[in-house]
Amino acid sequence: MPRGTSKRVSSFGGSLTSLRWSFSIDMQPNIASAAFLIADPARAAMLMSLLDGRSRPAGELAFAAGVTPQTASSHLSKLLAGGLLMVEAQGRHRYYRLGGSHVASALENLSIIAVTEATRSKPPSKEAQRLQFARCCYDHLAGRIGVAITRGLQSRGFLLVSADNRYEVTPAGVEWFFSMGLDVMALKPNRRGLARQCLDWTEREHHLAGPLGVQFMSLLCANGWLRRSKLSRAVRVTEKGWVGLKEQLGVENGLLVPVA
Questions:
Q1: Which of 102, 145, 227, 251 has the smallest count of CB within 10 Å of its CB?
Q2: Mean pLDDT over residues 44-58, rounded?
Q3: For the residues 72-80, what does the mean pLDDT come to?
Q4: Residues paired with 188 in a beta bridge
Q5: What is the pLDDT of residue 66?
């Protein structure tokens, strides 16, 4: 090999490795910017307060985060720029909501890995117990009730666990949902299907999500079985709801011990 060739080959090899590394980094999703935005406690509090799917003004989000309106405005601008929030103007007022169900899903998944032993050792507040019992997971039902209802749907053969974290609605399930007032055949699947398994961050089990989960929760609220809190993500099961859930899905009040 001519003198100097080895160095040129080595240099070329190093450059090629650096190029491949740079190309690999550029091709990866930029999770660092989203992680940076969520990592701030005030911004995280704002995002979590929007997990019920509702829109809220800046003043409410500032109160939820425990910051001044000026500080909240700065945080909201960053969350908007990062795609984590959307804003809608009505007259002089601006209302903020999560950027979509994918943002809600990311927050719920982060909640699963965020629980520490120190957190578990603290006695949960009444509100925390209510959220654990039944809450909105952006646009569908979660918590102990959400998991129990999903179990009931499976035990009665209305849902079957399928691949890719999905549920398959059986013919019996299509018929049952229709008898409840929900036409499954009229629903439009999204890119993750019609019925999705969503891992519940408090129960560590799956509950029903996806278009079917969204419409089913809306139906239960419309039928007076569930009642959403106006102040938080908490959901309450009504007396009518307990009767219906026991009759239809075997979900009993006494077995779940709701928080007063």
A1: 102
A2: 88
A3: 94
A4: none
A5: 92
Average pLDDT, the chain: 85
**Domains contained in the chain, number:** 2
Instruction: Report yes or no: 99 and 81 within 8 Å, Cβ to Cβ.
Output: no
Tokens of 184: 């499954």
Question: Do 163 and 91 belong to one domain?
Answer: no
Residues 90, 163 within the same domain: no
Supply 89's token pair. Answer: 């103007």
50 falls within a domain: yes
Q: Which domain holds residue 49?
A: 31-99
State whether 134 and 82 are in the same domain: no
Q: Which residues of 177-193 are buried (b: 16+ CB within 10 A; e: fewer)?
A: beeeebebeebeeeebb
- Answer yes or no: is 8 within a domain: no
Is there a single domain that holds both residue 246 and residue 136?
Answer: yes
Evaluate the CA torsion angle 101, 105, 108, 114 in order and state its sign.
negative
pLDDT above 90: percentage of residues in the chain = 54
Helix axes 41-49, 31-39, angle to 10 degrees: 90
Distance between CA atoms of residues 65 and 5, nearest Å: 62
Q: Regarding predicted confidence, which is higher, 232 or 123?
A: 232
Model confidence at 207: pLDDT above 50: yes
Distance from chain centroid for Cα 190: 16
Q: Parallel, antiparallel, or unpaired: how do β-strands 159-162 and 140-142 relate?
A: unpaired
